[in-house]
Write a structure and sequence with these properties.
By secondary structure, the protein is an alpha+beta fold. It has 11 helices and 22 strands. Strands 14-22-21-18-17-16-15 form a 7-stranded antiparallel β-sheet, with helices on one face. Strands 4-5-6-11 form a 4-stranded antiparallel β-sheet, with no helix packed on it. The N terminus is likely disordered. It comes from Solanum stoloniferum.
């Protein structure tokens, strides 16, 4: 039973933990609260953030308003802004990075190359362009001296971005490789929670930014008593829709019907076939640095721009809390171990219409399952969940683009408390963050054209090729398929070549049966590989 419960935390959404929205802002009851909210992650809470409680008070109020915010909000908006380029951004979990080769990634519209500097024993993040003639360094290699080599003309760079060798320069000539113009651009980077992060500003002033400002830290991801399995997937819709979708628990029973375990509604609550029911969600804090919300026993936190997590505990006594001098809240240890689980979503803006998600579901029970079950087995179900609403969100993004970010509150009808966190996120986006990701003029504002559905839902290039576990399984299963095909043909050949009377009737039929089974297994395996590592369409109409 513990195994079944453990596996239920691998999917991406749980009704228990997500949050949703209150109606329009002018119909919110705002109450000053002088106590800090309970947080399971004191290290990532803002220390000087304002604290207000926002509660939706009526399921039937109108969401239409003349302006997104009142005059006071606009004045506050002028004073406090979210700086998109003064934050740490995740790139990849280090478990999916190969130290033998460079990796090309795009974050915030910036093309970067990630590679392992064996001389300094750390990961480096550099601009993915050679200063010579702008060839992508991610297509290069790591040479025998541990330098990053451009595969176009052989220029070599160390971890500091200094050019160490230009093959075309005369050995007895001037040291042209020492020119500043020969240096590659290096970004500050760090590894935290086994995830590689980078600071999107190469100015030398930020070289030691890690000493003064660090990425959001989640202790459970480093706690050996918790399980930890990462999945990374590139998504064909934008950052805003990705965050909004993960904050919405009400869609789980419908978009992911039949593929996710969701809590059964109490008999006293009326629910439809899929299990949809009213949700009581309260946003407890909204400022430039954080959004927090409660839904029953679940607590939800958004730390801009990338981290959204849900925390819940069950079984055993509830831990008592006490405030400490720093203003945060810590949980006192309990005599009886309490079962705890988290859903951690790390959302990365890539470019308009494209985003990337890093997901982990740490828990402190049934942890043995993650140690004996290969990571790619978990990824099969998690990818199916992502696929089941990918197309509709891709289309929805284009409709919302026509409406405009600042018209979202007027265009979208959100009368129930199930949408509380979604409304809060849209308010944060418009009030503090300029309504959308700041691409700094790299794009003209248009979304990319919609590709064919098969290409949109393709898993190979968005996940398999970048996941060390799935890539290894993909190659192994393909090799097994070839082995089964060869075995089938070989056995048939033996039967055909055997002289009359050499094999008994029983042996002949046994060999033919083995050949047939090998053939059927190879065909089934081919279908399994294509369905789980390439393309799996999800038809909502027949669920």
């Amino acid at each position: 039973m513990q195994t079944i419960k453990a596996s239920s935390f691998s999917p991406f959404h749980l009704n228990l933990n997500s949050t949703s929205s209150f109606p329009k802002i002018t119909n919110l009851y705002i109450q000053q609260n002088y106590e800090n909210p309970i947080s399971c992650f004191p290290s990532i809470q803002s220390q000087n953030a304002k604290f207000k409680v926002f509660t939706a008070i009526s399921p039937s109020v109108s969401t239409e308003s003349e302006t997104p915010f009142d005059e006071k909000t606009e004045n506050e908006n002028q004073e406090e802004k979210f700086e998109w380029y003064a934050e740490w951004y995740p790139i990849m979990p280090i478990c999916d990075l190969d130290k033998r080769r460079p990796h090309g990634k795009k974050v915030m519209g910036i093309d970067v190359v990630v590679w392992w500097d064996k001389n300094e024993k750390e990961w480096k993040v550099m601009d993915d362009s050679c200063p010579h003639r702008y060839a992508p360094l991610s297509e290069g290699r790591i040479d025998q001296w541990g330098r990053l080599q451009c595969v176009y003309h052989g220029w070599c760079f160390n971890g500091a971005g200094d050019c160490k060798f230009i093959p075309q320069a005369p050995r007895d000539g001037p040291p042209v490789h020492m020119s500043k113009r020969a240096c590659a651009t290096v970004y500050p980077s760090c590894v935290q929670n086994d995830i590689l992060w980078f600071w999107p500003n190469s100015d030398p002033l930020y070289k030691d930014i890690y000493l003064t400002k660090r990425p959001p830290y989640i202790p459970e991801l480093d706690d050996s008593s918790f399980s930890k399995t990462f999945i990374v997937r590139d998504i064909s819709y934008g950052y805003e829709l990705l965050i909004e979708n993960l904050m919405d628990p009400a869609h789980v029973q419908y978009s992911h019907y039949g593929i996710m375990n969701v809590p059964v509604a109490p008999k006293s609550v009326k629910a439809d076939r899929e299990g949809g029911r009213p949700l009581d969600i309260t946003v407890t804090k909204l400022d430039v640095n954080v959004i927090t919300a409660n839904q029953g026993p679940g607590r939800n936190t958004f730390v801009p721009p990338c981290v959204y997590y849900s925390y819940f505990a069950f079984g055993g006594p509830q831990g008592k809390t006490s405030a400490v001098s720093s203003g945060t809240v810590q949980e006192k240890p309990s005599a009886e171990k309490q079962k705890k689980a988290l859903l951690v979503f790390i959302c990365i803006p890539v470019s308009p219409g494209h985003s990337r998600i890093i997901f982990a579901s740490p828990r402190n029970f049934a942890t043995w399952a993650d140690r004996i079950i290969p990571r790619w087995i978990f990824h099969l179900g998690q990818n199916l969940i992502l696929d089941s609403d990918l197309y509709l969100l891709h289309v929805e993004e284009r409709k919302l683009k026509e409406i405009g970010s600042y018209n979202w509150h007027k265009a979208c009808y959100v009368p129930t408390k199930a949408d509380a966190i979604v409304v809060a996120f849209r308010r944060w986006l418009n009030k503090y963050a300029g309504g959308q990701v700041d691409w700094r003029g790299k794009y003209n504002g248009d979304l990319p054209p919609t590709p064919p559905r098969k290409q949109l839902l393709d898993r190979y290039w968005t996940h398999t090729v970048n996941c060390t576990s799935c890539n290894l399984a993909y190659k192994g299963l393909n090799a097994l398929e070839v082995v089964l095909q060869i075995a089938s043909i070989g056995v048939i050949g033996i039967v055909a070549a055997a002289k009359q009377g050499t094999l008994s009737v029983v042996a002949r039929y046994s060999l033919v049966t083995i050949a047939l089974l090998c053939f059927v297994a190879s065909r089934w395996l081919s279908h399994f590989i294509y369905k789980n590592f390439h393309f799996h369409d999800y038809d909502h109409a027949f669920r």
